[in-house]
Design brief:
The protein is mainly β. The protein has five domains: 2-72, no CATH class; 77-166, Immunoglobulin-like (Sandwich); 170-251, Immunoglobulin-like, CATH 2.60.40; 262-353, Immunoglobulins (Immunoglobulin-like), CATH 2.60.40.10; 382-418. 13% of the residues lie in helices and 50% in strands. It has helices spanning 62-65, 357-406, and strands spanning 2-5, 15-20, 23-28, 32-35, 47-53, 67-72, 77-85, 89-91, 96-106, 112-117, 120-123, 127-130, 139-148, 154-176, 187-197, 202-207, 210-215, 219-224, 233-242, 248-257, 261-266, 271-274, 279-289, 293-297, 303-304, 307-310, 316-323, 331-338, 345-353. The strands form seven sheets. Strands 8, 10, 11, 13, 14, 15 and 18 form a seven-stranded mixed beta sheet that branches. Strands 22-29-28-24-25 form a five-stranded mixed beta sheet, with no helix packed on it. The protein starts with a strand and ends in a 12-residue tail after the last helix.
Length: 418
């Protein structure tokens, strides 16, 4: 506020006029002229004049009664600050630096310079240096410069820069049911982006290296409506991100799903023969998840102790050794596997008595004798048929000869019957 007052004779009234840099700004027809003006730093060193003008007096008296006062203002203001620094987009783990400087201030003496970041004051000078930047350091950084006015008050000048820290997405992979998935269960796998900058441009599911689903949203779901044993494996979710510098990277979350299934039994030879006194080994192979408890039962349904070997393909081979002491050891032996998932698997092996060499010889002899009898019968039959054919031929010839003897043209013919 600029105020100008003057004493003059009411019989010779005048006008008070304010000028700024030679330009009339405000006029009052009274002994006081109050001009309210908001001062800015542009008004610093400005020339302000308050002038008394008497328009009712004779002109020659103006100089005696006219007056003016001149004021040169010193307008004080806070620092005008600018920031210069490196690229504001950086990757997590990189280094960032920036520096602030004062462009203008009145008074121009800077008392304090410091930086304020997302988590408070971080530097007491004009240089900002961030080493090995992390994602939680992303945000605005403000440089503050302080000067002091004539009345003891302080002026604060500020300038800010946004530090955009880019990083790989943080993703979560969830599976339902979480554990104990069994054949024919419905399984849902969800991949969700929890945090990212920038947002990933693609989400992708793969199973053991083969892509099974992909999408462009913030989440991706894969459904197994009816689980099978070959649905077991390592499921991976990848979130692909393209950074400001053109580099493409992906974050990864994976989960191994194991589908439980009931046992199956494979037996290579379902019938084994042995003599009394022999030792035979019966064997079955069991495939199941989780592994099964394998039991063997003899023909009397008694449990037999067994030995097991786990193979590279996770199957279990179970063996029992049977010493055939008497006829009671012959019969049906059962391999049973149970892992708690129905149904219980069972397969059988028949242990039979071996056929002895004497029995084989007798059987061969009997068979040979029978064959001899058959051959003999065939030979007799053939001889009989051959003789019958000869007699028939002789009779036929005889008849022909007799006929010829009666023909006068067939002289000297005769027939000898034997």
């Amino acid at each position: 506020m600029l105020k100008c007052t003057v004493d003059f004779n009411p019989s010779a009234p005048g006008e008070l006029v304010w000028f700024q840099d030679g330009q009339e700004m405000h006029r009052e027809n009274s002994a006081r002229n109050v001009w309210t003006k908001t001062l800015t730093k542009a008004d610093n060193n400005g020339v302000f004049v308050c002038q008394l003008q008497h328009k009712t007096l004779q002109r020659w008296k103006w100089s005696m009664l006219s007056c003016e006062e001149e004021v040169v203002l010193n307008v004080q203001y806070s620092p005008h600050v600018s920031v210069s620094g490196s690229q504001t987009e950086i990757l997590e783990g990189d280094t960032y630096n920036a520096r602030c400087k004062v462009i203008d201030a009145n008074p121009d003496e800077i008392l304090l310079t410091y930086w304020i970041g997302p988590h408070g004051k971080i530097a007491d000078n004009a240089t900002l240096m961030l080493w090995n930047v992390t994602r939680d350091q992303r945000g605005d950084y403000t440089c503050v410069m302080v000067n002091e006015f004539y009345n003891g008050e302080q002026g604060n000048g500020t300038a800010s820069v946004m530090v955009d820290v880019q990083y790989l997405s943080k993703i979560a992979l969830t599976v339902s049911p979480l554990i104990n998935a069994t054949v024919n269960d419905e399984i849902t796998i969800n991949c969700t982006v929890l945090d990212s900058n920038p947002k990933p441009y693609e989400l992708r599911f793969s199973l053991d290296g083969n892509i099974i689903a992909e999408d462009f949203g913030p989440s991706l779901q894969y459904l197994i409506p009816s689980a099978k044993a070959n649905d077991s494996g390592t499921y991976k979710c990848q979130a692909f991100t393209l950074f400001y510098n053109g580099v493409e990277e992906y974050s990864l979350s994976e989960y191994t799903i194991v589908i439980r299934y009931s046992p199956t039994i494979t037996i290579a030879n379902t019938r084994v023969t042995a003599d009394i006194g022999d030792t035979v080994e019966l064997e079955c192979s069991v495939n199941s998840l989780p592994p099964s408890v394998v039991s063997w039962y003899d023909p009397g349904n008694d449990v037999i102790s067994n030995k097991e070997d786990r193979n590279e393909d996770d199957t279990v081979t179970s063996r029992v050794a049977i010493i055939v002491e008497d006829e009671s050891y012959y019969g049906i032996y059962t391999c049973q596997a149970d892992n708690g998932i129905p149904p219980i698997a069972r397969q059988t092996i028949e242990l039979a008595k071996s056929v002895s060499s004497s029995t084989i010889a007798i059987a061969v002899g009997v068979a040979g004798g029978g064959l001899f009898v058959i051959l003999l019968f065939v030979l007799i039959f053939c001889c009989y048929r051959l003789r019958s054919n000869k007699i028939s031929k002789v009779i036929t010839v005889a008849r022909i000869e007799r006929t010829r003897t009666q023909d006068p043209n067939l002289k000297g013919c005769h027939v000898m019957l034997t």
